[in-house]
Design goal:
269 residues; alpha+beta; 8-stranded mixed beta sheet; 16% strand
């Protein structure tokens, strides 16, 4: 099978034990090392249903045996009391346009490739961690740690690749982005403690029913999420609509904040 053209994609050929894992730690340790008044950003992969009417991703030639994953992103407040989905502010910050193409027979347990020997491809990721964090928004220049989560589990999920393997691919790739832009005059972040120096991952995958229940029980934590978008008849519980994609990481981050720091109730209750 012919691989996608280099003009459209950049290819991941790095080791899965290089860069992306060296700063990985337990969630409790991340919280203990996180400087005061620093935010946490969460990334998680979201499988795109290419037959869904809400999906505007175009499959290039040579990628029919790949699953396509968008990147959902959310950020906490400085008090670690709630999560906010990162919303688009133009083409540069359309997080769902950043795509991972994963071979359908992929597994990290086999060294990061499947029987087809096809590599993983990604599209529209920046070249450096600094650039990635700048695209989050200038108002969020106080990020201190990174969490990699799992998307909301929907009843009709049908991905071939283990979602935790996809999360590990995403973590590995973002961890391997260059960190050579410290001389960038437009970057106002302190480089003495980079957010990617403090990383953890979430293994629990919340279901939509669980998320709706928690939103009802803890409205202050969940008011920034638009979970009702999953229930709109015209979307049919679509993962692909921008109103839905942005909520996956926020649901994962809210669950994380509740478990490790008590969330809103512990901070303001």
């Amino acid at each position: 099978m012919k691989a996608p053209s280099p003009q459209l994609f950049q290819q991941m050929r790095r080791s899965f034990n290089n860069g992306g894992d060296k700063n990985l730690m337990a969630s409790e340790k991340l919280i203990s090392l996180l400087p005061p008044m620093k935010r946490i950003i969460c990334f998680c992969p979201v499988l795109l249903d290419m037959d869904d009417k809400c999906c505007d991703e175009k499959i290039p030639s040579g990628t029919n045996n790949f699953e396509v994953y968008s990147i959902s992103a959310a950020i906490s407040d400085p008090y670690l009391s709630f999560a906010t989905p990162l919303k688009s502010k133009g083409a540069a910050t359309r997080w769902m346009d950043r795509s991972l193409y994963i071979p359908k027979d992929f597994s990290t347990s086999t060294g990061g490739e499947g029987k087809s020997k096809q590599p993983v491809f990604w599209r529209n990721l920046p070249q450096s961690q600094d650039e990635l964090l700048m695209q989050v928004g200038e108002e969020y220049n106080d990020i201190g740690g990174v969490v990699f989560g799992l998307p909301i589990k929907l009843t009709h999920d049908s991905n071939n690749v283990n979602i935790k393997d996809v999360r590990d691919v995403l973590r590995n790739e973002l961890g391997n982005l260059q960190t050579l832009h410290s001389s960038n005059k437009n970057c106002n972040r302190s480089l003495s403690l980079r957010p990617f120096n403090l990383q953890c991952q979430i293994d629990d995958q919340v279901t939509l029913d669980e998320a709706l229940k928690r939103a009802n029980e803890q409205p202050e934590m969940w008011e920034e999420l638009n979970l009702s978008s999953f229930l709109e008849p015209d979307l049919g519980r679509s993962r692909n609509h921008p109103k839905c994609v942005s909520n996956h990481a926020a649901a994962a981050l809210n669950t994380f904040l509740w478990e490790v720091s008590g969330g809103w109730m512990n901070t303001f209750g």
